[in-house]
């Protein structure tokens, strides 16, 4: 963009860059040297330069402006796109948006909930409510499972009779029709129950919200009463229904976690400025972080303290996340951790967020399809030159599949210790069998992207499967475990070092989960291995 | 200074974030926009003009949010319009002059206001003085490339601005690497003339030109003017707003200004007058540059600051005597923070920041390449240019409660003795507090602030006092200047710096610098910004260009970083500080062949380790972990490569008061903290330990190094290549003088000079004996030689009888003496058989005896002094 202009001072001339980047005094000294002028000329030269630059900069600016404006004047350029561009820009300013959206229902509710949970003993009431609702759902689910089981049994018997009929009395068509009929019956039963459950959940959700809003209003009113009267009048507008149950926050029996092993480390990272992280190595079932373990003993409901903690921090800026490894298909499939996770979610109502199915289908509809078509376009434009662009074989089926390294995010309020779940897409079988995965494996990129998301969205505690698998198989020998651990930890360390540049809220607690059927001995070996990669700081010596 | 209605204000906006994982041309991740903005903001702090609101500070919130603190006034031209005031010609003229003065000033500073509007022109309480605010937004946002909102109010923007921005943004996106290259400012100063014209028109009419019409109207009107073949847009604008027949146009005020407004609203920029031309047309006095007043512009610039640099003549008239009100606005802000001011909380309460819960903002889907889907636009990040006033009432109350001793530190004694006593008591109470407490103590910092402000203003007159006070601590707000004073910088640093021709530097060196800078203290906001990189580069280039005998070694960048950080707006002072610092502490370390200097330094360092921690020295020697393996970056950067900036500041606060050997003591102090770990570690663990050095408690490190400095005889740190060698050498036989490096290397303990022994043991007094002596003087000659002549108070332990062949001590008397004098310095005195002396000391160290040193040149140096005496047999064992 720069241009050079001739600067003349008495009988000396020099070409100078416009606009100039060095300071005028420096220019002046340079010219004094160059032209071997006496130093007393400095002020004069300086002034001459100042005037020169003032003038020339204005000339250049006028030229640039002219260049930008000319196409508009001459009509080579339409005015409308320009105005549209500016109209969009202006939308970024509050002043020019007259119809600012009013706060969403979700927002109002989150505020109210936060407020209610933190005032007085309201949390007991909410927990009680939660337990009652949860119980109701569980009863429903049990009935559903029982009926389906009975139906299955009956079908089985019927089918058995038909197939084992020695005289081939029933033709094949009949058997096929029977099977068809059984399936339809089962589906309709399931559908019936599922709609029962979901309508129960909807009702509960509605009731819960109403209750919270009511409590919120009460607390507002009582606050304002207190303020106006100055007296501590506890005028309850409507007393809560007396309940025979009382809420107790208690650490649950350890028997539940019989195979749980745990060690923790405090590590520092960074060359000059050090930042602290907590690492925890845990042997347990990853879904232990999700399952609610509320129990009833006599008239007491025993809540885990973690549960209350999770509720309390739901709308704050320190959230807990969990990584689950899932297959490419978003829809539910049987026999993997996803199904198990879905059944954990199903067991109680999420009062704050849409149900897992709703969230997943919205992800599939809104995001995955768009992402896949973007990816396709990108790859097409990349090899647009090559003739063999292979976008013919992309059926609609394919467009709903994720790639390895993608992840989708669901939000939950009805899990024990987790607010946000990252479903990281992996190719399970290849991850298991191959001994040699490198740091450039897409699953590890996914892990990095997850950490980055954590930083952006205030997830400060993240739980992840250290071995990139949720259960142990026979192929996973001790050397395999050690090698995999080393790889993942080293990558993790690199990502954590990067974290500083990603955002202001670091993900400072990282929980590394290993499958619960890992041998004790291997676990201890792992526990010894962690500090060789993440160096622990020396113990602090207190001085008195 | 603050006049009664001056206040601090804060406003906030959110920088746009980069698309996922982009890298710049140098292969490093892109700098976040917020960091770019913070870097560019710093220059705005140097803007000082009576008609411009001062910019004070910028802070980073979470999620790319930025908070800008500036001078703030409630009243604006907008309030005038709302009040329907009828304005006189004189009044408008007076304001116009002020506006033009400030615009000319900005132009000289190469800044474009770009967003001149009724709202951004503020007034002091009396309505007499115009104060323009928010003028820096265009500059700090890198011409709006770092934010998603437009800079400039469309109601006031000149037609070309719309087109310029459009082409500019296209250019940037096409270039797609706007972070690496310097972008030229596309703005034209004359665009402000248009805005100025509209404002004049609005003042004359007493209403907003476009009334309450939506924002699309001024935009399209303005742009469409370009297509119409008219010289001035005035008539079109009036007609568009059905004002062309308005009665108000016929008023005398309007009639007076209308011709000028017409010129301002010329559609083509080249037809519009410049600010200076406008000023003449409006009958203003010619522009004069304002006198710089703040420390950053006056200290070390050859400008002698007036007694109270904050006052000029007009200010004297409304001088306020309250202790609070006569502080500068920077000080007020600094104290406001110390008093617990929380910007985020203030803005939240004002409703300027609304934060929706994090969980409602998480994205839904992220691809393997990191592209994010399902993220909702957070309406809370929309731009709002309202600034909010910070309440200073609390602060003022605290000021009023403050005892007078705090407010008026005395520079010269001899006044009121009782007053001085009270002040001393106050000092004593606070002195015991840890540094972190002192630095955050409101009252104490206030006291120090005034004290140092005065000491600096009088520099170098009260230099001694400055040293004494700096020994207690240095107030962070004035650290840059205090350091400069401690480094004895004088004269006009700008002049010196500008004279350096920085362009004749070998390209290889430039490349090396360019590689090193983006890796130097990048956790810091200022140093990681492109502006910070630029400044680092300039200062380094300046240093290299002006030191032709020295070269750039990696590490110079780390050394430069603290100075650039502290003097971010003053490259010249950063350069001057660096230039004074290097010969003082790193004399000749940057020679092309620096091996001699570094080797000597490291050997002296290992002597010091043996002197203070013989056990550690023995251990490290056994496993072969020598200082060459870890300590070179320590000393070459004076620990600037080892510690984060905040720790370097405290460390160097102390360092700058010490001599050239102080870094050695710091090195020993660090090892002291790591001692237990090192004693257990093997070679590999040591290497790992030093490659990722554990956190060091810096306050303890400082305390330890002062102790070490105090307990080490001065001559023990003698280095032939030190710059302050004159401190060791008085051209006397009894002092240190150069000796072969091979000798130095073969010895494990330091040498002490005869003079220092004399000094410390009062050898000149006849009555000295073993009991009064501060040192344990061990004479290792044979008893015969000893009996002929010896130093008073020395003991004779003959070399032959002291150790067995496994280097165990066999002489009982020696054992007892060493036990008894465990913590005192042990000087081994030998004669010409130097090897014996060295062996003896090495054996003592091998037996873990600390503070062992040997007499430089042996007993013979004392021969001419007449201090030797003839011992009696009772002196022998």
UniProtKB/TrEMBL annotation, chain A:
GO cellular component: cytoplasm
Pfam family, one: Fy-3
InterPro entries per record: Fy-3 (IPR019311)
Domain of life of the source: Eukaryota
PANTHER family tied to this protein: PROTEIN C12ORF4
Name of the protein this chain belongs to: Uncharacterized protein
Organism: Rotaria magnacalcarata
Automatic annotation (TrEMBL), chain B:
UniProt domain Rab-GAP TBC: residue ranges: 473-659
GO molecular function: ATP binding; GTPase activator activity; protein kinase activity; small GTPase binding
Domain called Rhodanese: residue spans: 771-871
Alphabetized InterPro entries for the sequence: Kinase-like_dom_sf, Prot_kinase_dom, Rab-GAP-TBC_dom, Rab-GAP_TBC_sf, Rab_GAP_TBC_domain, Rhodanese-like_dom, Rhodanese-like_dom_sf
SMART domains: TBC (SM00164)
Record-annotated Protein kinase domain positions: 1-288
SUPFAM superfamilies (UniProt xref): Protein kinase-like (PK-like), Rhodanese/Cell cycle control phosphatase, Ypt/Rab-GAP domain of gyp1p
Annotated protein name in UniProt: TBC domain-containing protein kinase-like protein
